[in-house]
Amino acid sequence: MKVVKFGGSSLASAQQIRKVGQIVKSDTERKIVVVSAPGKRYSEDEKVTDLLISLAEKSLQDQDYSLEMNKIVQRYQEMAEELSLNEEVMVAIESRLDQLAAGDKSHPDYYIDAFKASGEDNNAKLVAAYFNQIGIPASYVSPKEAGLLVTNEPHNARLLPDSYEKLITLREREEVVVFPGFFGYTHEGDICTFSRGGSDITGAILASGVNADLYENFTDVDAIFAANPSVVENPMAIAELTYREMRELSYAGFSVLHDEALEPAFKKGIPVVIKNTNNPNAPGTTITKEHTKEHPPIIGIASSSGFMNIYIEKYLMNREIGFGRKVLQLLEMYGLSYEHTPSGIDNMTLVLREEQVSPSIEEALITTLKEKLQVENVKIERDVALIMLVGEGMRDQIGTMATAAKAFKDQNINIDMVNQGASENSVMFGIQQKDEDKAVESLYRAFFD
Ligand SMILES: Nc1ncnc2c1ncn2[C@@H]1O[C@H](COP(=O)(O)OP(=O)(O)O)[C@@H](O)[C@H]1O
Ligand SMILES: N[C@@H](CC(=O)OP(=O)(O)O)C(=O)O
């Protein structure tokens, strides 16, 4: 049995949905189909999820949201008409949107999440109707009915593991299950979505829940490339990579697969294949436990911006028992999560996502570090990008650092921070955001050309 997820780009128009129908029809093992909301049809187009967020925000402020509502309804309407679906589908979609607009606004985050989730929910109803029309017996199944339970964290929910007890029963369905991605229900019955791009997570959860043989993730590229194709021209396609490598690459910017989508598949050892809806015969990229084929020592180069460094200096820091704990406790006190903590003898750098740290939190943090922990120097650097060189083969390769350092030097890029774990699966470089693309291009040339 295969679980198949189709991303927003694969479901953006009637023409794309027809391709999806053919892909599902061509393999009877494709029994569970997870769908995203309609994505972009062309680069300047709007994703339905983004339209739903602006609609909900306007509605919360009692502003006129008719423009967004019309655009959303029109997106589904055009697809339903072109696919010659009967009126029932559009009646259900429009009445759900009206019901949401009239919903409880006393908890804005839940109000927004219910709207966000409707993008996938309505699309699943439409796709199920289309499958039946072309002779694929199918039914829409809601996360509530299937028992997909999540934490009470709007915009950033996580799966509650007891969901698995019920999800296994999806295996018993005769017909193809069409399941909306991106959200689940809390124990209290509220809708909470995963973070953006989270339909990939739903696909992985269902694959794990039903013990699938394969999780196929259909998108709009032939493979995962060794570098982001919008930064490097014609990057090399990766035939195979491990969960560990993919986890690091998707964390650091390979948006083609959500980084949280790997854990459920990894735990059960279910292989994941990335494939192209527009070219389904291309072999795609397989993500597995171990490499089975020959592969280069560096498998990919990813980059991600929006980080900040908090550099802390205190003489004899290395002798002070509990200093690191106290620093991290301070972060906890301000509700901040940290990404990395490279350190020296008398200094420590905290790498954080900068969107969490408002100027007032920054000021309070500096004051507390100086007053409570007697830190001598605190330096803040914003607009930091992280560049990640990933590859399990790096371990047995001499000279990786030398090649990377030369690539940075050739482009006159200053390295602010280097972080390499003992596992030697990856090396991370902190640089200024303005140099991000230049750094990826230069590293790509150094390792792949
Ligand atoms: N290393 C990479 N390899 C392939 N695609 C990448 C990579 N890094 C970023 N991408 C981008 O990921 C996109 C596919 O992901 P996404 O937009 O989430 O698709 P979907 O709509 O199918 O969910 C590609 O179109 C590509 O621009
Ligand atoms: N529609 C949601 C969830 C998702 O996974 O979408 P996509 O498959 O288009 O990345 C979003 O835009 O975040």
Automatic annotation (TrEMBL):
One of its GO terms (biological process) is threonine biosynthetic process. One of its GO terms (molecular function) is ATP binding. Pfam families: AA_kinase (PF00696), ACT_9 (PF22468). Pathway: Amino-acid biosynthesis; L-lysine biosynthesis via DAP pathway; (S)-tetrahydrodipicolinate from L-aspartate: step 1/4; Amino-acid biosynthesis; L-methionine biosynthesis via de novo pathway; L-homoserine from L-aspartate: step 1/3; Amino-acid biosynthesis; L-threonine biosynthesis; L-threonine from L-aspartate: step 1/5. It catalyses: L-aspartate + ATP = 4-phospho-L-aspartate + ADP. ATP binds at residues 5-8, 219-220. One of its GO terms (cellular component) is cytosol. Gene3D superfamilies: Acetylglutamate kinase-like, Aspartokinase, catalytic domain, VC0802-like. Its EC number is 2.7.2.4. Residues 389-449 form the ACT domain. Catalyzes the phosphorylation of the beta-carboxyl group of aspartic acid with ATP to yield 4-phospho-L-aspartate, which is involved in the branched biosynthetic pathway leading to the biosynthesis of amino acids threonine, isoleucine and methionine. This is Aspartokinase. It comes from Desemzia incerta.
